[in-house]
Protein 1
Amino acid sequence: MTQIKHIAFIMDGNGRWASKRGLPRSAGHIAGAKTVAKVISACNALGIKAVSLYAFSTENWKRPEDEIKNIFKMITDFNRRALKECVKHGYVLRYMGELSALPDDARAAIEDACARTADNAGMIINVAVNYGGKQEIVRAACTARRDEEGKVSAADFEDALYSTGLPPVDLLVRTGGEYRLSNFMLYQSAYAELFFEKTLWPDMTAKKVEKIVGEFALRNRRFGGI
Ligand code: IPE
Ligand code: IPE
Ligand code: MG
C-alpha cells in the first residue's frame, strides 16, 4: 500500500451531530474528542508518520463565548488523555497556531504535554489550535531567515511555518460534508489528495479511516508529470 507520511483531518460536524440528537453543541465536542483517540490509533496501525488535526480555527472566535469555552475545555481534556496515550505508545504531541491567545491553564497544559513527549520517536500528533493557514503564511514571510541578499529560500520559508520538520500533507480529509478548506494547512496541502466525507466527525471510525486510506492508494499522484 502507498505509504502515507502525513494525513490531516478537518474535524467538522460536531455541532450537527449533537443537534441531530437534541443535545447541546458541547456534547458534540465531547463526543468529537473521543473520536480523536480512535482515529489516532487507526492511523498508527496504518503506519502513518504524522497526523494533523484541526481543533480550533482563527475564525472560530466568531462563535458564542460559551461554545468557545466548551471547545477549550474539550481541547484541555483531549490534551490530558493524549499525553497518556503518547507516553504509552511513544507518540510526539505538537500544537500549531497562535497559542498566546489561549486561556493560561490550557496553554500551560499544552506546553507541558509537548515538552514531555518531544523526545519520543513514534507517530507525530499535530493539533491545530487558534490556527489559520493564511496567518501562518504571513507569519513565515515575516520571520523566515534571509540570506545576505535578503532573499528567502523555500527551505527556510518552510522552516518558519508551524509545521517545520513535518512532511507535506499527503491526504487531507474533511468530515461533515462541506467542500472547503476553511483556512487549513494551505501551504502544506499544495499536493494533498482531498477526501470529503459526509460522516459527521463524532461518527468517524477506524474502519472509515482504513477505507479512505485504501482509496488513497488507488489515486494516481502525478505531481505535474504524465
Ligand atoms: C467542528 O465541528 C469542531 C470545531 C470547529 C471546533 P463544528 O462545531 O463546526 O460542527 P458543525 O459544523 O456546526 O456541525
Ligand atoms: C473548520 O470547521 C474548523 C475546524 C474544524 C476546527 P468550521 O465549522 O469552523 O468551518 P466553516 O465555518 O464551516 O468553514
Ligand atoms: Mg463546522
Note: The pocket of IPE (ligand 2) is lined by residues 10-12, 54-57, 60, 178, 180, 182 (CB under 6 Å).
Protein 2
Amino acid sequence: MFYKVLIANRGEIALRIIRACKELGIRTVVVHSTVDSNALHVRLADEKVCIGPPEPNRSYLNISSILSAAEITDADAIHPGYGFMAENPDFAEACEKCGIRFIGPEAEIIRLMGDKLKARNIAKSLGVPVLPGSEKGISDEKNALSFANEIGFPVIIKASGGGGGRGMKIVHSPSSFSNSFHAAKAETAAAFNNDEVYIEKYCESPRHVEVQIMADRHGNTIHLGERECSIQRRHQKLLEESPCPGLDDKTRKELTSVAVKLVKSINYTNVGTVEFLLDKDGNFFFIEMNTRIQVEHPVTEMVSGIDMIKKQLKLANGERLKYKQKDIKFSGHSIECRITAEDPKRFVPSPGHIKNLHIPGGLGVRVDSALHNSCTVSSYYDPLIAKVITHGRDREEALSRMSRALEEFIIEGIFTTIPLYKNILNDHDFLSGRIDVEYLSRFL
Ligand code: MV4
C-alpha cells in the first residue's frame, strides 16, 4: 500500500480522505491556503504544507505548488477529492510524470470522458441509449438549424468541453435558434479550451439518475447501484438518495448493466459515475460520465456497506476487486442533504464565524463535515459545509431520521440551507417521490 498520500483538497472531503487513510495505516499530507491554516482537515493530517494565498488559482489549483509539496514530503500518491484537480487530465499526467500515483483513472480516460461528444459517440456505438443528436461538432449556423429541424424542437445545444450543465442552451423554437446558437458558441469559447458544440433533442422534465461504478486494473468492473439526484438548482445538487424511488427492477438492471458495459469498453479504472436522464415513460438516455469520487458517494456507501474512498486507494494501488457483482448486497435506503452556508431563500452566500455548533447523531445518522466550534466559513470556496446522510430500512425511515437530524442541528452565526430542507421534507410531492429536475424551481 502507499506509504504517504497527499490530499489536494479541503473541507469535508479532505477530512473524509484522511479518515480512510488512517484506517489503512497510510500517512497523510494536506496542502492548504493561508486562510485554511486552522481548518480541521489541516489539524487532523499528519503533515501540512501551505501552498499559497486563498484564491484557488494560486493554491488549490496550482499544479506546480501541489507537486512540489508532494516531492518535499515524499508522498507516493495524490488524492484529488472532487472539484479542483479531480478531473484535470494535465494534473493526472503531471503526477505520473513525477512518479506520483494519481488516485483516479488514467489521464487519457479523464481526457476522453471530458469530451462529452466523444463520450456520447462511444455510448451510441455500444448500443447504450442516447437522445437523438449530432455525431460531430457543428460550427455553422445554417447546418445547425437544419439539423435541429431534422430532429425536431425543443433541442439543447451542449459544449463538448462542458459537462455538469456548463455551456448549455435550450432552444424551444426555430425563431430563437440563431441567438441561442451564437450565445452558446461565445460562452463555450470563453469558458473552455474547446469551442465545439453539438445538438441533442431536449428531453423535458427528466429525472437525473446515475450509476456508481468500481473497476480494478485487472479487468474487473462492478456497479454499486444507482442514485437519484434530480433535486438541484443551477446544476448544483441539493439532495440525493439511493435507491432511486419508483425505479422498477427491470429498468434498474438495464441501467446498471449498460453503465458497466460502457466503462468496461474503455478499460476504465478506479471509481466513476455514469449519468442518465430518465424520461416520463421510463426510458433512459446516457448523458455523461464523471471520472471522480462524487460529493454524494456516502448514500451509496450507506446502502452497500462499502467504503468507497478506501476502495479508491486500493484500486489505485493495483489491488484486485475482492467482490463479484453477486457479492454486493444492498440494504435499506439512504438520503443526503447538502447543507450550504447560504441564505435559504435567495441562495446568497453567508460566510462568517460559527459561534455555536451542535452536530446531530444517533442511529442511522452520519454527518460528513469539517465544521468545528468557533470555525470560520470562508467566502473563497464552495459554500458546502456539511452533508447530513441518513440510512433506514426503507425510504420512510431514512426520511424520518433526516427530519429528526435536521431538527437537532445547531449552527449559529451564519445562515444555512437547513430550513429549506426541513420544508422539502414536508412537501407532499417530494414525500411521494414525484421529483424531476424541475422539482426545486416549482417548490421554490
Ligand atoms: C439534457 C437535458 C435534457 N435533454 N440533455 C444538465 C447537466 C448535464 N449533465 C446535462 N444536463 C441536461 N441535459 C438533453 N438532451 C436536461 C439536462 C438538465 C439536467 C440534467 C440533470 C440534472 C439537472 C438538470 C437540470 C437542467 C437540465
Note: The first helix runs from residue 11 to 23.
